[in-house]
Specification:
3 domains; 5-stranded antiparallel beta sheet; 7 helices; flat
Length: 209
């Protein structure tokens, strides 16, 4: 019976976690708009068939998600047009001159552009490095080259490496280390993250890059 229980747990847990994550994201995206959307849905004569609070809530969430998808699509379409890009640049200049707001906006924008730009190589290369002491190794992701001043001060070419922590890879350590001390691994980023999140239980496929 114990084996059957653990077999069922292994089957159920990934599904339960997936559902939890999806529900969390849906609630996070729709919560700011739920008040007035549910009010509109509940009084609309065309939606009278929704006769329960749960049905109204579910329909409102679907409606909000669909609207957000269309808005994002339209923004992306217009962002590729010259006039709208000019307006965005004007908005950027205004935000970058506002006290306090400018620092948060510029930093956030640079990070997002680095993460989502196809031309960037951030977090694409998995490496092995000695951390936190000489006889211990850990997995890291190269984020970028180190600032020129650090390479000059150290007398070696330095790279900035992000070391994700277990089991939450969104937190970790940022270290600057000489390029010569890194061991480059034939491993994809998603494989490395799975290995870290699973506390080493999920091994990368043998011979797979």
């Amino acid at each position: 019976m114990k084996r059957y229980f653990f077999a069922g747990l292994v089957t159920l847990l990934p599904l339960a976690i997936t559902v939890w994550v999806v529900v969390f994201i849906v609630n996070f995206l729709t919560r700011p708009f739920m008040g007035w959307v549910t009010e509109w849905v509940s009084v609309s004569p065309y939606l009278a068939f929704l006769n329960s609070n749960q049905a109204i809530r579910t329909f409102s969430q679907i409606l909000i998600l669909f609207a957000l998808f269309l808005i994002t699509l339209l923004l992306g379409f217009f962002a590729r047009r010259f006039f709208f890009r000019s307006m965005l640049r004007l908005g950027d200049r205004i935000l970058e001159r506002l006290p306090l707001v400018s620092k948060v906006y510029k930093t956030t924008k640079e990070i997002i552009q680095s993460l989502f730009s196809a031309k960037k190589g951030s977090f694409k290369q998995v490496v092995l490095l000695r951390f936190p002491y000489e006889t211990c190794y850990c997995i890291g992701l190269i984020s970028n080259t180190s600032p020129t001043v650090t390479s000059k001060s150290g007398g070696k070419e330095m790279l900035t490496v992000f070391i994700p922590t277990t089991p939450n890879p969104t937190t970790g350590y940022m270290v600057m280390i000489p390029k010569s001390e890194l061991i480059y691994l034939d491993m994809k980023t998603d494989q490395a993250i799975k290995y870290v999140v699973s506390c080493g239980v999920v091994q990368p496929p043998k011979g797979a890059k």
